[in-house]
Design brief:
heterodimer; A: 200 residues; alpha/beta; Rossmann fold; five-stranded parallel beta sheet; five-stranded mixed beta sheet; 5 helices; 24% helix; elongated; B: 320 residues; Elongation Factor Tu (Ef-tu), domain 3; Ubiquitin-like (UB roll); 3 domains; six-stranded antiparallel beta barrel; 7 helices; globular; flavoprotein (chain A); 2 iron, 2 sulfur cluster binding (chain A); iron (chain A)
Chain lengths: 200, 320
Amino acid sequence: MLVSNIKSRPVYGGLKVDDAARRHLVAAEGEGALAALAAFTGRPEAIARATVLYSPGGSAPQDHAAKLGALGFDDLFVMPSQPTLITRLNVILATATMGARLYAAGVEGFIGSVVAAGMAHGIDQASIRTEHRGSLARRVQCVHCKGMTDNVTVSPVVCSHCGIPLLVRDHFSRRLGAFQGVSIDAETPGDVPPAEELYA
Amino acid sequence: MSGGVEIPVRVVAIEQATPTVKRFSLAARDGSPLPVFSAGAHVVVAMDADDRRIKNPYSLIDRSADGSTYRIGVLRTPQSRGGSVFMHDRVAVGSELTITMPVNLFPLNRTGRKHLLVAGGIGVTPIYAMAEELARQSVPYEIHYAMRDAAHGAFADELVARHGDKVRLYRDDAREVIAVDRILPNQPLGTHLYVCGPEGMINAILAGGRAAGWPEENLHAERFLAPPGGSPFALTLAKAGITTEVRGDQSLLEAIEATGVDAPFLCRGGACGQCETKVVSADGELVHNDHFLSDEEKASGAKIMTCVSRLQGRELVLDL
């Protein structure tokens, strides 16, 4: 369990199916497919009301997509990448009604993108159900140049856009779905501690 | 001081809105502008009756453009502790009252894309203020207002004049009901629902929202109650070492205040939780009228909300 005293650090409550919902919109990535399987297996009524979007990513060799297909969801879209999945999700959310419930499972950067998409369509962040699966790798925004760096597992990390060495903080932007990276050597330029593998 | 800053006010106008509802315009006695409030807010009005001080919460309808007056709407409810009857029968233009600063326990959700405002009877007062604010912001909204009959629609004409076809009126005498099963299922994402009215109506509307699959985060209700009366009982404040009597037409909190003890309170409507007080012992049955404590907490008998709850029995001892 990830613990932090920074309030914006997301807490993932798990992929619990809300039986009251009329439509379940499930966005999953990589190992997140296992969370979707665990939540929906043995619940035929929920499966019949579920639309699943899945991007296999690094989990492609495990073929979780086949397991999702075998469960018989009402709709299953296997997408080639996270960005294409978010694009498809946005199209579905544009016509969704208040009876729809959004679920997100996978790495943190992906969950952040799904939650940000849901909020952009007016969904209250507290009603989005999330489960972290797979790597602890972070999506990091450089607060100086605003560039995004994905799959960050170390801190400090060099910004992939402007080259500033960044301390990766627990400070999380829900709007961007990203952790914040701040210059680690602003006071003493060049004084950069060695990178530690924190988010493997 | 508990409940925050108080504002001395004078009644400057009274409108008889319906046979049972009066609207009071209140201005600060020193002529200064009244604080800006957000839609859904209420004030606690203190009334000095002959033998006691009554305090009731009332939702704010509006604030005049120059900030000099607030309006509140008061339904006459003869079977309660006497606050609304006092307002109707004893308060005239020129009467002096005291109000608290506005407090909002029923705010609009600013991130909402669309807002459904549902009112029953006198529950229309906060809804009226919310509709004004939404109209100013050009956010999509609908108003559904249920009343006993045309004569009892305290705000029906004004609402239609100001909001046109966004208003839908329902009259009980014409057997018109708010069809939640038709209104709620196809609302777009980001819609928020706000309901204020009688308890049974609130429960039916919220149940309709849940049946349509709405998440709790988007369902909002104002379950304000004026403190109900009851039988008199003895009250002991253990820490202060005071024993007194709570009269039948007095709330527990009013009786505590009458002894000079500065007990905590905020909404005085059983909603906010500020007045939660530990029960040392109770010889009788606690009558919990609030919407704050959970059913388990109520059953445990360890706590009481002094603003609306009381004892049916002989003596109550509180940790005050």
